[in-house]
Amino acid sequence: MGVKHGMCVAGATQGMPLREQMIQYSKGDRLRFYWWLFAWRSRTASGRLRAVQTFWLNRIANRHGGYIGPDTVFLGRPLLPHGLHGVFISRFASIGEHCCIYQNVTIGEVGRAAPRIGHHCLIGAGAVIIGGISVGSHVKIGAGAVVSRDIPDHCTVVAQPPLVIVRK
After folding, report:
1. Do 35 and 13 meet the contact criterion of CB atoms below 8 Å apart?
2. What is the pLDDT of residues 46-60, one digit of tens each?
3. Which end of the chain has a smaller Cβ tally under 10 Å, C or N?
4. Which residues contact 93 (CB under 8 A, 6 or more apart)?
5. What is the reported pTM?
């Protein structure tokens, strides 16, 4: 996973020079096994096996300084240009396809209600998205923004409190 021209690119390690792949691997940003295990756990019905899978997922995420809840719903594998470094995603959250999540992002819950994030969203470093809110598709959330209310499609959110800039 990588960044190209300011945008996240899916599968960016394919076609990447071996030197860059080795650097990414050494930083711990390559999480193929983590996502494979995450997908396997979502298909597992057995309580004991699911508990073991959850244990290993938590250990891997903790090693990378992040946390993804066991019941988090991903409609597609998220793009994490900096790995799980400081990323916290609530177990009640739902993340759409092709979302790019930078480091130190919190997607948190309030009273078991967590955000539902649409497709093709970009969440900047240090952003906080909290509560039972909906974030539309093609939304950009700037670095350090705190979002606690619904955001419509095709918007950019910056500053605190959030300032919605409609793009269309």
Report:
1. no
2. 889 999 999 998 888
3. C
4. 69, 72, 73, 107, 109, 114, 115, 116, 117
5. 0.77
